[in-house]
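To whoever picks this up:

The parser on our side crashed when reading a file containing two proteins. I've narrowed it down to the boundary between the first structure block and the second sequence. Both blocks are reproduced below exactly, byte for byte. First block:
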Amino acid sequence: MANEILAKLEDAIVEMKADETQALTREAMQAGVTALDILNKGLLSALERVGVLFRDGDYFLPDVLMCVKAYNNAYALLDAELKKGAYKSRGTVMLGTVHGDIHEIGKNILLALLQGNGYTVVDIGVDIKSEVFLEKAKEVKPDIIGMSALLTTSMPAMKEVVDLFVKDGSRGKYKIIVGGAPVSKKFAEEIGADGYGEDAQSGVELVGKLLAG
């Protein structure tokens, strides 16, 4: 019974049925399924499927955003239970769009996929100045810092952030990754970043690899 409900919940998220996910989540909880199991066996598995569909070109941004909405509807019911301590985060990732750029769709998709894969994510917003990345990193103490840019004119700000961490002497404390339409693996290497994600799903996989050592 419980497995059947979780399978329906997973499918509802993948099929963008946001109006069904809360009802299925409540049904699972009433059936005695723990919040952690609902997250791992319903929500997490759904977003893994969504990430692959997006990476393979079967889903596009509007589809992913609808899936994220369906996911958020379900996650909202689990949040309080997960915060009681039954759930252990896989690591903390701080995300922000660099100075001079206000685009955030890609960042927000990555945020949702990371949360769905068990990571704690701190979103510091858009148009973030280099010194704010450093200040927030010292405050949040993330394992990984992710920078996003959609404009070629804002890409130099990524290097400014990396250079600022080097100058501060704290570069070795954090893994820094970059992503966005104009960004490339070569650019990431040139500015001294630890990795580059071609898309949101690649970003999730990159985070996993970096934290695994």
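<<boundary where parser fails>>
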Amino acid sequence: MFNLEDVIKFNENGLVPVIAQNYYSGKILMQAYANKEAIQETIKSGYATYYSRSRKSLWKKGETSGNLQRVIDIKVDCDEDSVIYLVVEEGPACHTGEESCFYRNLNLEKDTKPLPFEILHKLYEKVEERKRLKPENSYVVKLFEKGSDKIIQKVGEEAIETVIALKNKNKEEIVYEVSDLLFHLIVALVDSGVELKDIQEELLKRYK
């Protein structure tokens, strides 16, 4: 293994700040610290390991709670004094049960609106939730009740409307119709049991 001290500038206490970020959605999950041994263990095990400053020992995220973080990649910043773990979560990152520790704004109020980079993943989760909980007067629930053929029909209709909008070269119309198409595609993906990460992985394979 290469010498970590050649690529990471640990501070006077032998630590470096680490951000855990969702590999697929880009969402920032938590911030902690790691020493050389913690990063070595992360590389060896494939799971996020940090250094607890209070306990003065290594801790594997989720070792007791089960909320593990499988590490896909590790990034180092331009100054080499901070690190990102790109992870796939196996449960919430925050001890409060929130997906991310950064769930409040500066007013210390919970921020429930998704950020732009995670909106497709949040829509997917919302569609899954509607399918599972079946709230009354839900358009999504009605689509699932009508079955796969109806969902596929809606995708086809929205695709045609998107093509017409593109033909008209009207930006506002294109944005509206593409949004409709993406939404109904997400419903169709949930109905088919295909996850967004499956699409992302396929696109990554095609990226040259």
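After patching the parser it read the second block fine. The helical segments are 36-45, 119-133, 139-146, 148-168, 171-192, 196-206. DSSP finds six helices and six strands in the chain.
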